[in-house]
From TrEMBL:
Gene3D superfamilies with a match to the protein in the record: Vaccinia Virus protein VP39
Annotated source species: Bacillus anthracis
Similarity comment: Belongs to the class I-like SAM-binding methyltransferase superfamily. C5-methyltransferase family.
PANTHER family hit by this protein: TRNA (CYTOSINE(38)-C(5))-METHYLTRANSFERASE
Single annotated GO MF: DNA (cytosine-5-)-methyltransferase activity
Name recorded for this polypeptide: DNA (cytosine-5-)-methyltransferase
Catalytic residues (UniProt): C86
Length: 259
């Protein structure tokens, strides 16, 4: 089970998958208050690793009152994260974007408007940059959030595969610490580093680490799965690499005084 010490900053993890985003947040000292995940297999993984965190299955029905009714302290939620479905933006899909019925950004945005978190962290495929991203950024900026977007591969943190992903960071100007907090300088420096094409934290995890910790069900990343479990393979394929998104949560935690 992955849990950090209790902190004052909580996160609502939407479209949680198997909690790759929450794992990275946890490493930075940001606790997850609740998950929202519809897939039964993913829910089983979440219950096993996070037995004390409530899981809400239906994003369309999730709202502030249902969180309260489920025992969640909504006032403590300072971060909303969402790895919203990417099929509509994926370069290997039909790229219907907002016309795709799996396009869940409007529901994520509805909860952002209702809960008004200080931070939003979003994750999607690289193709999101050319389809759907403008809508996300415009929506956030209309609600007075400053935004930054980063696209970088998992290989930038030492993983043995490319796996490019788009990460969106939004910060509420209504609750801004960025203008007065001296830690804004290193945070902006991180932003500039992430935007650099050389990638981030190169070599943080060695090839030995990935070799020793490769999942048994998949074999190597570009090889053939010898013990194929279709559910596990499918959901691992959609999962966020925690090391890839961790620097974002590390920067947030430093600004919020958690690190």
């Amino acid at each position: 089970m992955y849990r950090s010490k209790e902190s004052g900053l909580k996160m609502l993890d939407l479209c949680s998958g198997i909690a790759g985003i929450s794992m990275a947040a946890d490493w930075a000292g940001i606790d997850t208050a609740a998950f929202c995940e519809i897939e039964e297999f993913n829910q089983k993984v979440l219950r096993k690793n996070y037995p004390n965190i409530p899981i809400f299955p239906d994003l369309y029905k999730l709202m502030k009152q249902s969180l309260i009714d489920g025992g969640v302290d909504v006032d403590s939620i300072g971060v909303i994260s969402a790895g919203y479905p990417c099929q509509g933006e994926s370069l290997v899909g039909k790229r219907r974007g907002a016309e795709d019925e799996r396009w869940l950004w409007p529901e994520v945005f509805r909860l952002i408007k209702e809960l008004r978190p200080t931070w939003f962290v979003g994750e999607n495929v690289a193709g999101h940059v050319t389809m759907g991203l403008d809508t996300v950024l415009s929506d956030l900026e209309e609600e007075n959030y400053s935004t930054r977007t980063f696209v970088f591969p998992a290989v930038s943190v030492g993983a043995p595969h490319q796996r490019y992903r788009t990460f969106i960071v939004g910060h509420s100007n209504d609750k801004s610490k960025l203008q007065t907090d001296p830690r804004v300088v290193p945070f902006r420096s991180k932003w500039e580093t992430w935007e650099n094409t050389t990638g981030i934290n190169r070599g943080t995890l060695s090839g030995t680490y990935w070799e020793e910790n490769k999942p048994a069900i998949c074999g190597m990343d570009d090889g053939t799965a010898t013990r194929l479990d279709e559910d596990r393979l499918r959901f691992l394929g959609n999962a966020v690499v925690p090391q890839q998104i961790y620097p974002i949560f590390e920067a947030i935690a430093k600004i919020e005084g958690l690190l």
